[in-house]
Amino acid sequence: MGWILFFSIGIPLLCLPAYILIEMTKPKEERWGRSQPNQAVKGSGSGSMKNPPIRPSAFVGLETTQHPADPRTLKPVQGLTEYVPIYSGAFLPAEHQLDLVTMDDEGNTNLQLNLYNGQLVLEAPNGLLPNRSNGQVYKLGIYTGSIRGSAYYEEAVLNADTRPLAKAELVREPGNKYDKNAVAIHASGAGCVGYVNKQNAARLSKHLGVGEEYMAIFTSGCKRGDDSVPVSVLIAPTATMMSIFRNSGIPLPSNGITQ
């Protein structure tokens, strides 16, 4: 009888792989990596688990493409006609913007205009001056910046020639219900394309209000039928603008002012 049991049970068991035999010697609840999820650890608070079940985890990774920053934004290229934004790090810090700038009693200055990254930028002897914000040249009666409110004049902007050096017209709007100091920017043949920002308008309107002559030109923008480039302007007393043009070798434009 014993030999019969050996041949019917023992020999088949010996033929099984060792790891299966080992698993079969374990308690049923522990075979094949199983555990009892509700078995509490002795001495622990309720709800703690001796062998918490192993749950599958999933990691979802999003594939992203990082484009390297355009080096021209921090190191503008002189003479480049393609528009590329210029980051603030390329400009002189506020505390040094006027260090080497001169202006005499007749408004003549040593500032000049140069084309960088598709936009006109004021250049001082020690570096570039901001052409959109954080500029200190307003202390000299010179104003630079992007026009405001152009989204309300999309058709006019599209029909305007706002390329660098195109002339702009300053139109005071003392009856403007939103800002009594409002100064509109008009483009030739297109009408109003936006406004001088509120802070500069408050400064500028005082000069225009007493009859001082100012000139304005676009320093960035597009040809008619295109509005892909932000529009910005340079505004300065006529004598100062003429001085800047002479320093830059730019032909002197004519520019009317409506007050």
Automatic annotation (TrEMBL):
Segments forming domain HIRAN: 145-224
InterPro entries registered for this protein in UniProt: HIRAN
Region Disordered: start-end pairs: 31-58
Alphabetical UniProt keywords: Hydrolase, Membrane, Metal-binding, Transmembrane, Transmembrane helix
Spans traversing the lipid bilayer: 6-22
One annotated GO molecular function: hydrolase activity, acting on acid anhydrides, in phosphorus-containing anhydrides
Protein name (database record): HIRAN domain-containing protein
